[in-house]
Structure formats: C-alpha cells, structure tokens
Amino acid sequence: MNDITYPLTLYFDGACPLCVADMDNLRLRDSAGRLRFIDASAPGFDAAPAGTTVADLMAAMHARTADGRLLRGVAVFEAAYDAVGLHQVSGWLRSPTWRPLLERLYPFVARHRQHLPRPLVRLLFGRALRRAAEQAAMRRCSADGACRIDPQ
Description:
By secondary structure, this protein is an alpha+beta fold. Helix content is about 50%, strand content about 10%. Strands 2-1-3-4 form a 4-stranded mixed beta sheet.
C-alpha cells in the first residue's frame, strides 16, 4: 500500500482491550508521527468528520488518509503497520496467499473482539508492547546517555 498519504487517522474502539493493545503498540512505534489516534467510543464522539457513522466505526477498524480516502478493515492494519516500519507484518497482510483469508476472518474477529479474554490479548500483544516500549525509550535517549522525558 505505497500510495498512502500521511498522517493516517485511525478510528478505534477505546473500550476494546484488543483494539487498545494494538493502538498502544502502534503509538509506541510511531517515531515518524505518521499516525493519529481517535477513540470512536469516547462520549460525545462525532463521526461526521470521519465520513461515516459511529456504528460503522464500531463494526470495523477505519482510517482516513491525509488526502481524504477512507480505509476499512485489513487495509487499515496494512497501512498502519507500514507507517511504523513493520513492513514484514504489512507484507504478510497484503500477501495474495493470506489476504483473502484475513478479509474473511476479520469481520468475525471485529464482531467478537469485546469477548476475547484479556490473557489472550496479553499473549498476542504483550511481547510486542514490551519491545515497542523499549524501542521508544531508546529513541528518547541520546548517544551520550542523557534521556529526555516524553510528554505523552
């Protein structure tokens, strides 16, 4: 997905442990500032600027490119993982072997995401989150060992 214009605005369900873990992973890895994160489950959230409805945003992951295109489902994850430099993951998501299966599986996962057990979410994202946090901490430290505090 080389035609993505950044920043890419990701609309996610902040009440979903799986969604939050994935967004935290992406946020920690986004050293280039290519991603924007919007919790579509927040009270008072207005979906009009996203160009869709809250119901649509809650049914599947959505993102809006800087040039206004709306992405949905697996395409969002492909673009987001490309944005943070996880090209192996995005390559796997666009693979002609895996993409058709993922496109069929994603609606099921999206529909049942709230019911996934937290230990499974930790299993899926725990290691990735630790690694992303370590990398983010390393980026905040200069070559002479002086570290700065990240305002986030």
